[in-house]
Amino acid sequence: MLPIFAGSISVADAADPRAPAAAPVFEQWRETPHRGGDDLMTAGLGLAGLRASVAPAFANPASPTAGEARRRAIWSSWRGIADLTPGGGFGEIYGTLQSAPGREFSAYGRIPGASQPHRVLVQIPDNFDPARRCLVATASSGSRGIYGAISVAGSWGLAHGCAVAYTDKGAGSDYYDLDAGTGFQADGTPAADGALAFAPAKGTAAHGVAFKHAHSGDNPEADWGQHLVQAVQFGLQALDRAYPQSAPFTPANTRTLGVGVSNGGGAVLRAAEIEGNWFDAMVAGEPNVSVAGAAPLYDFVTQAALLMPCALLAVDDLPQPPVQAQARPVWTQQCAALRTAGLVQGEDTQAQAHSAREQLAKAGLSEGALRAGAFSTGFDLWRAIAVTYASAYGGYAAGQHPCGYTFSATAADGKPGTASAELRASWWGEAGGIPPGSGVMLVDGNAAQAPNDPLRGLSCLRSLSTGDSADAKRVRAGIARAAAKAPRTGLPIVVIHGIDDGLVPISLTSDRYVPLARAAGAQIAYWRLTNAQHFDSLLAFPDYRKRYVPLLPYLFAAMDQVWNHLEDPARGLPQDALIQTTPRAEAPLQPAQLSIPSASGR
Prior knowledge:
By secondary structure, the protein is α/β, with parallel strands linked by helices. It has helices spanning 46-51, 66-81, 150-159, 212-215, 224-242, 263-271, 297-311, 324-340, 349-362, 367-372, 374-378, 381-394, 421-430, 446-449, 456-466, 470-481, 510-519, 542-545, 552-567, 591-594; strands at 27-34, 102-109, 118-125, 134-139, 163-167, 176-177, 183-184, 190-191, 209-210, 255-261, 281-285, 405-410, 416-417, 440-444, 492-498, 523-529, 577-579. The protein has 20 helices and 17 strands. β15 (492-498), α17 (510-519) and β16 (523-529) form a beta-alpha-beta unit.
């Protein structure tokens, strides 16, 4: 699909005192129509296509068209975040998958001083009404690509006739093959040169695979709030282009709702700090947010990478996957290695496991969160996250990680190898933004250098949080830049978090942020959910849906309630709630099992 026009635009509304003196200039503008069998919501796949376990095909596997790349990215983004299983409730009791014809505008934005751009994209449905102008702004969860929040912001916003503005917040799936010199263009297709979404500095001697979150050198987390504000600014500029007869679209005349989950939720709260009435309300689900003065989440992640494999041996009734019969021998070896290093006590595995578990409990992790953390442990997420974030916080280029980690394409024998053109072409549509996955592996350089010290790499990652080396100080300086501050007063905010969240523990994030915000006078509601963990997509596994409810219904309900209040202030805002839920097991999910609270004033 060819762009209708390209170029740059800069629009500032001098009459609006809340607009900046100079609006940002966005580069590589593209506009594409999406109608008929290629809509905004599902790229024409519908529910059946999104449920398919096989990705939408490329006619030429090594060289997809822009439309094919987009379709696969939307397929992957839906499946990575939402529970779309029959009986799970999506599209029936919450959310929508109805077709949404319209247009997309996309471009590159750039934070002042950043060396790499972030992607911005706006979806404008054909039923958008300039007389009731509304904009939903969102940031991708995790480190996902530009469509990473489509199942949340896209589903709600498009169904309400709103434009939806997205940012990948300086991360995303724009991987770069260092050996082939190939990255991705604005339209998601691979290329060796041109205006790539991410390209490492010229002259790098590194090999393997680089990706923007780890290797941009920009510490994107420190700028998550600015990324989201720029998404709003891009959304307003796109609406000016789409409806020139109704321009200008400004924060004063366009109702704007910010929403996100996980890292996207963190971006929402960081944007709430920024002066200027860019948003009318905010909804943040399971936000990855660290508060100044408290231990940052990186500290917990590195502790979990070391201790959780052993600690889980002291917890009964773990969810599967991972398959416990396969995980237990590996975790037992971890206990022994920790005992040798003096990091746990005990003469046998059970005593060592209890020692590790006690340390995590002292750090603030509940038993429910520890149990849910089995998934992150079994799939090596702790280490992957720690490696990526350490690289980002310290601004390290590819090949310069202080703990000796690199990334490589995975060969057929499971070892580091060279990426084929077909593999490279799949990254933009399928990669989650942090390897391993999608044919890219995390390579531990410590394994060859110190084969008798299995904890060397993990201990190095931990030392970046606790040590006094130059690298540790460099990383901690980056962490400090990413700490959250109180939001501006008068902005309605809803924070939603599962009590059993094992990846972004509630006790280390939302439980700290909400009191900080309230002490500063914030208008904030806090929903805490029983039987809720971090990944709705895991409810596709029978053992998980027996234990947990999805989180997304509560984001949709909170968005409904704050929007109703903005439409009619007599309809109250959400209030604090400890929500008692009931997992569905194998029966279809029913509204009563969610126990969604009503807003005040009803």
